[in-house]
Amino acid sequence: MTGTWELNGLLQRRLWIVTGKGGVGKTTVAAALGLLAARQGLKVLMVETHGLTHLAELFEAEGVGYEPKAFKNGLSLARIDPEPAFQEYVLRQVKFEFLYNAVFNNKYVRHFIDAAPGLAELLTIGKIWAFVEDEARRGKKPLFDLVIVDAPSTGHSLSLLTVPQVVVDAVRVGPLKNNAQQILALIRDPQRTLTWLVTLPEEMPVNEAVEMDEKLERQAKVGVGPVLLNSLWPEVLGADSLQDLKKAKVENPMLHLYRQRAEQSAFYRDRLRERLPGRQVLDLPLVYQTKHPVRIAESLSESIRAQLTGVRP
Fold it and tell me: What is the pTM of this model?
């Protein structure tokens, strides 16, 4: 979908998948989105993949593991690791834990998961699907209004989103095919699932974001929401002020560097919009804060809210 999004419409989705090139601030932006949704009264589960702990560290949340753990008003965290996801999937099929332990509970399981092409991705997206759908399938109210995934960097995220189709094409019948079809039904439904692309106002991140945008729609066939342009240098001095400084022959290396970075930010901001016509781009300012990363997320959350609602603080 292209055009302009409003916050209320975005909050109607059940699953947000946040991705972007490594180093663009994806985890911080995912945290900002989680804070934003929770402050609108939603019960939010934030999910990390591949056993990573970046979100837990950002929020200074202890004891985060495979099962969701509440840690802040409206926010819970979980960390998906392929090995327990594999155990959970097998137990859903065979029903008997002793049988799983007898066959799979050994050191070779991890090697098997790592070696089998696409298996870790399938187990991960399958667990994400379970977080969204399990309670509803049992006729119960969902535990969470919204699941937000801090997905891997762009290439790995694409594998995560396309592996269910690979399984559907490769497997003729059986529970594996059925499960993959259920996953596809969720992630390809733009009324339930939305991807958020995070990028920086730099050449390579912008190029990769444009390429990923196309792949998400054409290969993964998922809905794409606003693009989040992170760490945009603000133009503190306008063109007239800069011209006055030049006339006065003010030579300040820091001022010169700042002007260069601000001009670069503006250039790639405009380029991103030119290459993604119709796609809404949200400008997220560079936030100067190192000791408390959660404060960066809080600041970005407010910036996103203001741009999606048109209401400034």
Answer: 0.90
